[in-house]
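Friendly challenge for the regulars: who can give me the structure tokens for this chain first? No prize, just bragging rights.
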Amino acid sequence: MSAYEISDTLDSIMHRIDSIAKINDDIIKEMDNAVSTNSQIEEVEYKITHPDQKKKLVLNVREFKSKKPASNIIRTWKDKIELTVIPDIFNDKLNYTCVNYADLVRLNKEMLAVVHKYELFGDGEKAKNEVNKFLENFQLIRDNGLKQIQKKLTVRESSDLQILEKNVNNINSEIENMVSTNESITFTMTEIKCSYCNSTNTPLNCYSDGVMACNNNENCLGKRASQATCQKGFITSSFGANQFGGNQFPANQLRYTVTGTYT
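First reply, four minutes later:
Bragging rights claimed.
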């Protein structure tokens, strides 16, 4: 991955290690700040539905936007990073297991303290070979760990909705052609609709108790507000358990808005 050149000195390899460890530390500080400030990260999910019509199938793509605490994304991240286990000649008892964010933070700090002890050996080839293993470990922590979490924390600036709608429309055309040649085909499926007016051709607010309400209809929103009586309490609905990992939310908390174009 980062084999040193014969011309490399121990100091030059150490300099590269210090640079990467500093980059890692800066990313860690950025993430810790996101946790301490309770930053909310927008997540987007796309669902494809169709009206409950037995003789006609028209697919619709809908965009679901929700907010998730950065702390949840960071603290629940898991991935096994295969680091090189380096002989413990200084008896530091370093644990090279790396599967979560806490391990990334710990190893970036602890390995840096250990690797600088190799400066005692000068430019010997054996010392440079061992130090290079540390360099590769720091790179893995950066590329396979911290930068992967960073991607999850990056707010999307564009939506895939238009592209998906185009693809879905192509599928609809194929389905229509198929049905036109075989009258025995039927379809069944349940729509997502407003809990108050049953409208489907509208953006919908979805609340933590599973209620859907038109977000551009004052009447529906008014009914939602009048029924949100659990402001001081919490509930766990089947909707919450299925969609949000069983976490509890205030009954009237807005979880996400459904948008898109519909047939």
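Residues 229-253, 258-263 have pLDDT under 50 and may be disordered. The first strand starts at residue 40 and ends at 49. Your move, everyone else.
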